[in-house]
Design brief:
The protein is an alpha/beta fold. It has one domain: Rossmann fold (3-Layer(aba) Sandwich). It has a 7-stranded parallel sheet with strand order 3-4-2-5-6-1-7, with helices on both faces. Strand 3, helix 5 and strand 4 form a beta-alpha-beta unit. It is globular, with a radius of gyration of 16 Å. The two termini are about 10 Å apart.
């Protein structure tokens, strides 16, 4: 389906396209070709079922770079991942797309100096990528303000469920702006993930890649 689709067909700016081609990407993966236009063109929530390794970070990361407002020094996007390794990986990949936009992306996770994270947060960041426990820690400390979050992304939601983070995900969602967009990515769709979506996401577009 995507053999004739190019990144320039998806509605991305030339600045972002330049960053994509600099990384050596040539054609979008199926999840990218399906998700990027939906994310760019409307305000609906998205549930995407896709395996790890299908390019899903770029599927949400590229549109985020387009939609963040660099001049507003507040957290506009929060990405939750099950592990610190994935938080670092996602943060680095999104950072590689930003070019000279001025967008600030940081990972926050347990095992890293919280003072270092506090210094970065105080300077003003646009995109936070974090593990559930450390995000909740910052919420309780009032060092992570989520009132301006416009995009909440739950990455590998089924893995977070398997690791016992479902209540943490719910707590985080309850602290975010009710008018935000939510994107949930998961390799499988267990009943508790469907229940989470039903409770917090309202209407959504379902995207699946085999």
């Amino acid at each position: 389906m995507t053999d004739k689709i190019k990144f320039e067909h998806l509605g991305l700016s030339q600045r972002v396209l330049d960053a994509i081609y600099k990384k050596g990407f040539e054609e979008p993966s199926p999840i990218q070709a399906l998700t990027i236009p939906v994310m760019l063109r409307n305000d609906i929530n998205i549930i995407a079922q896709a395996q790890t390794g299908t390019g899903k970070t770029a599927a949400f990361g590229l549109p985020l770079i387009e939609m963040i407002t660099p001049n507003e020094r507040s957290v506009q996007a929060l990405i939750i991942t099950p592990t610190r390794e994935l938080a670092i990986q996602v943060s680095e990949e999104i950072g590689s797309f930003k070019g000279n936009s001025g967008i600030q992306v940081i990972p926050i996770y347990g095992g890293q100096s919280i003072d270092q994270q506090l210094r970065r947060l105080k300077k003003g960041v646009h995109i936070v990528v974090g593990t559930p426990g450390r995000v909740i820690d910052h919420i309780k400390r009032k060092t992570l303000n989520l009132k301006d979050v416009e995009y909440l992304i739950l990455d590998e939601a089924d893995e977070m469920l398997n690791m016992g983070f479902i209540e943490d995900m719910e707590e985080i969602m309850s602290h975010t702006n009710p008018h935000k967009r939510t994107l949930l990515f998961s390799a499988t769709m267990p009943l508790r993930i469907k229940a989470l979506a039903s409770k917090y996401m309202g209407d959504y577009e379902f995207i699946t890649v085999k």
